[in-house]
Each structure stands twice: as C-alpha cells, then as structure tokens.
Amino acid sequence: MPYIESKSDRRQKLQKGEPALTAGELNYQIFYYVKHNLSQGFPIPEQKKVKHFVEQFLAKKGNPNYQLYNDMTGALVRCAKEIKRRLHITVENTFKEIIDSYDDEIAKYEDKKIIENGDVE
Questions:
Q1: Residue 62 DSSP SS3
Q2: Is residue 3 included in any domain, yes or no?
Q3: Running DSSP on this structure, what letter comes out for residue 120?
Q4: Is residue 1 part of a domain?
Q5: What is the DSSP letter of 54?
Q6: What are the phi and psi torsion angles at 33 (to 5°)?
Q7: Backbone phi and psi for residue 22, each to the nearest 5 degrees, phi listed first
Q8: What is the pLDDT of residues 49-74, one digit of tens each?
Q9: Are 37 and 45 in contact (CB under 8 A)?
Q10: Residue 37 is part of which domain span?
Q11: Number of domains in the chain
Q12: Is residue 36 part of a domain?
C-alpha cells in the first residue's frame, strides 16, 4: 500500500478528489474513499465513484499507453487486496468489473501497436 507523506499537500488534494498522478496515488485515493465510506456506514464502495477516480487518472496523463493501463490495473488489484486485509471487505469483483470495462479500449490500443510495431514473433 503506497503512502503519501502526511506533510505533503497531495494527501489533501487526493482526498478532495484531485486526479491521481501515479498508480500509488490512485491506490491511496481509492483506499481513502473506501475507508471513509465505511466509517460513515456505507459498507460497499460505489463502483461509479471508483471508476471516476480511474477515469481521472487515465485522462490526466493524456493519451493512454501500455504503462498507464498496467498502472491502473495494478493499483486496483493491489488496493482491493489491501482493503480486504485491513478493512475486511471484499471488493475484488467490483474492481475487476472496472478493469474489465477497459478491455475493449485496451484491445484497440494493442491492435494499433501491433500495426505500428509488428506482432510478437
């Protein structure tokens, strides 16, 4: 689980919804959202809100690329595991649905790169 230094203003910005700049910040932002929803009596994170954080992350970086899609996927997988470990709720299916919702977009990107660079031999 990545941690953002408490002295850094990034914590407050992420908590207020500013787009994450790194996979670590995305992980932090989603974990924070889920943890604080739980404290307010909402046991399951709203998929729409988590996807919003993901969309902001992808858009902030400009044109998505392999690394960005990989960072997004990794952040969601690791965050789901940390939520289960520390908060004792299961969000793997919710987060997997978000990841899966990008399959067509990623496939189009991959196909474009195959044309540009050649396929795996």
A1: coil
A2: no
A3: -
A4: no
A5: H
A6: -60, -50
A7: -130, 165
A8: 999 999 999 997 678 889 999 999 99
A9: yes
A10: 10-117
A11: 1
A12: yes
Question: Where in 10-81 does DSSP place strands (E)?
Answer: none
Give whole-number Cα distances, 105 to 43, 45, 47, 58, in Å.
Answer: 30, 24, 19, 12
Q: How far is it, in rounded angstroms, from Cα 67 to Cα 49?
A: 23
Query: Which two structure tokens, joined as six digits, stand for 66?
Result: 């392999």
Q: Which pTM value belongs to this model? A: 0.91
Count of CB atoms situated within 10 Å of the CB of 103: 9
- Residues 73-91 have pLDDT tens digits of 999 999 999 999 999 999 9
Distance CA 42, CA 27 (A): 19
DSSP state of 8: S
CB 95 within 8 A of CB 80: yes
Neighbours of 77 (CB within 10 A): 15
Q: How far, in Å, CA of 18 to CA of 15, rounded?
A: 7
Helix (H) or strand (E) holding 34: helix 23-39
What is the tens place of the pLDDT at every residue in 11-47?
999 999 999 999 999 999 999 999 998 888 876 778 9
Neighbours of 109 (CB within 10 A): 17
Residue 4 lies in a domain: no
